[in-house]
TrEMBL record:
This is ABC transporter ATP-binding protein. Keywords: ATP-binding, Nucleotide-binding, Transport. PANTHER family: BACITRACIN EXPORT ATP-BINDING PROTEIN BCEA, IMPORT ATP-BINDING PROTEIN. Gene3D superfamilies: P-loop containing nucleotide triphosphate hydrolases. The keyword Cytoplasm does not apply.
């Protein structure tokens, strides 16, 4: 479970301080697929970077399970990043010189968790995501959709407690965006993965269990899908975004 409590973060430039997060609190339950939305500049990437502690927070807490990430030293947080967190980036960032399978195993190599079990997990993920036939190919030789699935498989290799994704559908057409979302849904359903995804896109967000909307440095609204039809949830999201604009 991810718990963010009264998180505050400002950026300073000379004597000027720009508050971005002014006391953000929310929870993402284990096995939940959650999205965070908000206009450009509302602090979504800042929030992700605070959770993974790539940038220091001013105050508040970020708890992953029982661990308060804000209290860890650099060595401890590096270990959490490599073992407990999985990252999916907007442009996927696969390494061209490694095969699909090697790319998937990369976090296990970096996190020093490489083992027969990790190799088996890589094969298992390739099967789940339907990329087993291309796993010896290089990124330049595979399609965009296959790259996305490889990136999500890589984020899952160490059985992370949490996947963090910043605009993973941002550069994609709607069909490829749908494929990324399907991969996350599969990860949630067959591996009980917990996913926290930043998105601008109400279509992508409408597949989530929960959507957190940021405005003016705070959680403006939290919407739950609650088993509703996707279309109905998307309509609610669009209405909320319109209301926020007023
Ligand atoms: N390193 C930094 N130094 C100073 N200000 C920053 C820094 N990074 C971000 N900001 C500012 O903080 C605010 C929030 O930025 P952030 O990148 O978190 O927004 P975002 O919600 O991810 O936006 P987008 O949807 O455009 O990606 C913006 O006003 C931005 O200019
Ligand atoms: Mg951003």
């Amino acid at each position: 479970m991810l718990q963010v409590l009264k998180l505050q973060k400002s950026y300073g430039a000379g004597n000027t301080i720009y508050p971005v997060l002014k006391g953000v609190s929310f929870t993402v339950m284990d096995g939940e697929f959650a999205a965070v939305m908000g206009s450009s500049g509302s602090g979504k990437t800042t929030l992700l970077n605070c959770i993974s502690r790539y940038i220091p927070i001013d105050s508040g807490k970020v708890k992953l399970g029982d661990t308060d990430l804000s209290l860890l030293d650099e060595t401890q947080i590096a270990r959490v990043r490599s073992r407990e967190l999985g990252f999916v980036f907007q442009d996927f960032l696969l390494l061209d010189g490694l095969t699909v399978r090697q790319n998937i195993l990369l976090p296990a190599i970096i996190g020093n968790t490489i083992s027969d079990a990790a190799e088996e997990q890589a094969d298992h993920l390739c099967t789940i995501f339907g990329i087993e036939k291309i796993c010896e190919k290089y990124p330049a030789e595979i399609s965009g959709g296959e790259k996305q699935r490889t990136a999500v498989a890589r984020a899952l290799i160490n059985h992370p407690q949490l996947i963090l994704a910043d605009e993973p559908t941002g550069n994609l057409d709607s069909k490829s965006a749908r494929a990324v979302i399907d991969t996350f849904l599969q990860a949630r359903d067959s591996l009980s993965a917990t996913i926290f995804m930043v998105t601008h896109d109400s279509f992508a967000a409408s597949f989530c269990d929960k959507v957190i909307i940021l405005q003016d440095g705070l959680v403006w609204k939290e919407l739950l899908r609650d088993g509703r039809e996707r279309r109905a949830f998307q309509d609610e999201l669009l209405n909320a975004i319109r209301e926020m604009g007023r």
